[in-house]
Amino acid sequence: MKEKSHLLLKEQLCFPIYATSRMVTRLYQPWLDKLGLTYPQYLVMLVLWEEQKLTVSQLCKRLYLNTNTVTPLLKKLRDKGLVAKERSTEDERTVHIELTQKGDKLKSQAEEIPANLVEAIDMPLEELKQMRELMWKFLSKFD
To answer: What domain of life is recorded for the organism (predicted)?
Structure first.
């Protein structure tokens, strides 16, 4: 019986995105190990290095993650002394997250990671930029 082409793994959009994500995360790991961060913790830190302070809901929105995923990440980052949490005085349901001095200093150690990743992937920079732009275009459909 001949298979329907739309059910072949190579015809799926989800699989190359999933597999690429796993491979890129694996490439990051040696550098993140040096920082003492997991990949999801690194993503939180990237947003905080950019914004310095924001609410948990703003952070969730930026990372396309739910609160129940972000909360344990923030707890571990707080336990490491990298972030501080503070309840809003206007609305105690709102929690603000900000970098500590230690968290801010970690940024300088992470500066080399993007260039190292590009080198490890060994693809033309222009193709990587095109791929990134297409992924952001795809994600913008979910905002």
So the answer is: Bacteria
Helix segments in 11-124, DSSP class H = 14-35, 39-51, 56-63, 67-79, 101-110, 113-121
pLDDT digit string (tens) for 21-46?
Answer: 999 999 999 999 999 999 999 999 99
First to last CA, the chain: 42
State the residue range of the domain holding 103. 41-109
CATH number at residue 63: 1.10.10.10
The pTM of the full predicted model, rounded to 2 decimals, is: 0.91
